[in-house]
Amino acid sequence: MTLVPVFDGHNDALGRLWCAEGDPVARFARDEGHINVPQMAAGGFRGGFFALYSPEKRAPFDFSAFSVADLEIPLPPMLEEGAALTAAIGQAGIAHKLAAAGHLNICTTADAVRSGLTEGPPVCLLHLEGADCIGPDLLALDTLYALGLRSLGIVWSRPTIFGHGVPFRHNHDGDTGPGLTADGKRLVARCLELGMVIDTSHLTMKGFWDVAEAGAPLVATHSNACAISNNARNLTDMQLRAIGASGGMVGLNFATVFLSDAGWKSGQAGIDDCLRQLDHMVEVTGETCVGLGSDFDGAPLPEGISGAGDLPDLIAAMKRYGFDAPLIDRLCHGNWLSFLDRNLAAPT
Which of 170, 230, 289, 337 is in the most buried spot, having the most CB atoms within 10 Å? Predict the structure, then answer.
């Protein structure tokens, strides 16, 4: 069977490996977690955005919090900059160890991403999920850029000196707090100078519109539609239309709690819920601005998808749903590649 190659908007494999400690190369080589060498090969996973995420404590990821009856979790406090930098540098180091072992190919240009889709190890585009580790002088940004960072999310779901994240809250859109700070607007400007992707996932609605005002193409690497599941982590139709108008991208988040109302209440969802989200986002945003943003290794997955190895089952479901082959190719890799062709630039 010929596999449809997948380029994915978000995963937390590096954070999983850093929190688990031990030998990350050995862990990544075996079938452990959602993203690893055998799972990528089985599912046609040819690359994506690999997140550097700073947790409150260095401990194995635990998804049990997503299975409680009440997920109304308040925003955690701001994370100390030094602790966040330790995590980000450590995870970047793991990425480079995996590249040295031949398991990943760290890419910093659109041409390298495109060629890596069909040959060599799967592509790793380094992404910072939350700029907690960057100070107001922005020097850590330039350091991470030198290590290969090409994408940045201003916040995770907690505040930074740059902006505010949304809480985990249902029956509410992302209009939950202030927009970007003055430092946040400087951070966005510097990212644009460097030709980096700016990710609005986890950002408040006001922050989203501040990024739009800065002239950046609007990207939400792992976010769904409020129209299907009204959740602060999801996007309104107005936001989805703005993403399409800016030539940006939105990536389908597989997390059960963001796929449907029932998923929020029970922690359970299915592939059909993924398809309903995709269908709506394509209708509102446009066929050329939607892709996948799985959140592998960072969230509970829908029934039928236990890891990257099950991506062919999602693609088969797309076919049954009525998506034609050209649209499936765009959703699985083509739209992300075209976006990067347009926007992953050399520093100005």
Answer: 289
